[in-house]
Specification:
Elements: E1 3-6, E2 17-18, E3 24-26, H1 28-38, H2 43-46, H3 48-55, H4 62-67, H5 69-73, E4 77-95, E5 103-117, E6 120-131, E7 139-153
Parallel strand pairs: 1-4
Antiparallel strand pairs: 2-5, 3-5, 4-7, 5-6, 6-7
Length: 154
Amino acid sequence: MQRQIPLASLADHVGLRLGPSAGILVDQARIDRFAELTNDHQWIHVDVERATREVGGTIAHGYLTVSLIPALTESLLTITGVGHAFNYGSNKVRFLAPVRSGQSVHAFMTIKAVEAKGKGWLLTNVVELFVAGSETPVCVAEILGLVHAGEGTL
């Protein structure tokens, strides 16, 4: 279920855990497209025959998994009173288990910190990604966003 929180009161929600998000299917076609975009054609991602023989099937690139975070978390939280926002990076990203071709990934997000920064706010969210049926996250990432007040939503 999506929460809507005004930017002005977001700091009051530090510690709030949201989720799960809807899932996104990570199929071989998505993995192959990511390999083309990034020029990362390591066999474990794109050679279905060899990966099946050696490790039980292809796995998604770690950065493909991370790149799904915005799409997964946008359904969890809408922040109102936003003029503009920027991806500010990440403090920490850990890959704890592989995402195999054909698995769906969903997210939980916890608001970790909201700090004044310049004329805006630095938001720190911890995002945990899971594949369907697993209790262990495949990825845990601390994601940063720089948000400025305004009339819109994020």
